[in-house]
Design goal:
single chain; three-stranded mixed sheet
């Protein structure tokens, strides 16, 4: 798939622009993929597949239409459900860049954790303690310009992520 991108002479930035223009992904979903790519590297196509934001077959069709020079807008009929069940805690990856955009007092007050979407889903996952009400989730979605899917994690499941955040804060304060 990346070979086709190279063959078309598209940089990741140009591909991202085509994805938005042709509505393969929403701006929020694409931003999540680009943030993930910035964190771990790789080509945008590979990141889209790894995160499961676009099915491989859909990517092949999309790229073929681009290669053919077709003028098209992607149909949203194939969108996946935003709610992943069950959540595999061991596969969750904290989305630090989005957390940085939220006022620290809110992050601390609610023990907010934002995670990259797991493979096959489009929404950013959010865990908190206490639980953030629906109005609060809507405000966070508006602030961050992404779709958020609240999930419930036990105190034991949240503990390693919160401990890691405390360690990072202590390290940055000491530096």
């Amino acid at each position: 798939m990346e070979n086709l991108q190279k063959k078309l002479g598209l940089t990741d930035a140009q591909l991202a622009e085509e994805i938005l223009k042709r509505k393969l992904l929403s701006a929020g979903r694409l931003r999540a993929a680009l943030d993930y790519q910035a964190s771990v590297g790789g080509h945008l196509i590979g990141v889209l597949q790894k995160l499961g934001l676009v099915k491989e077959n859909d990517l092949q069709v999309f790229m073929a239409k681009l290669a053919a020079g077709e003028d098209f807008v992607w149909s949203s009929e194939t969108e996946k459900s935003p709610i992943p069940c069950p959540v595999e805690v061991s596969r969750l990856r904290v989305h630090r860049k989005l957390l940085e955009k939220i006022p620290p007092e809110l992050v601390d007050r609610y023990n907010l954790l934002l995670f990259f979407p797991p493979p096959g889903y489009r929404a950013i996952l959010m865990a908190s303690d206490p639980i953030v009400k629906v109005e609060g989730v809507k405000k966070l979605q508006a602030l961050l310009c992404v779709e958020i899917c609240p999930i419930q994690l036990s105190a034991e499941e949240m503990a390693p992520f919160l401990a890691e955040r405390q360690t990072e804060r202590a390290s940055s304060a000491a530096a």
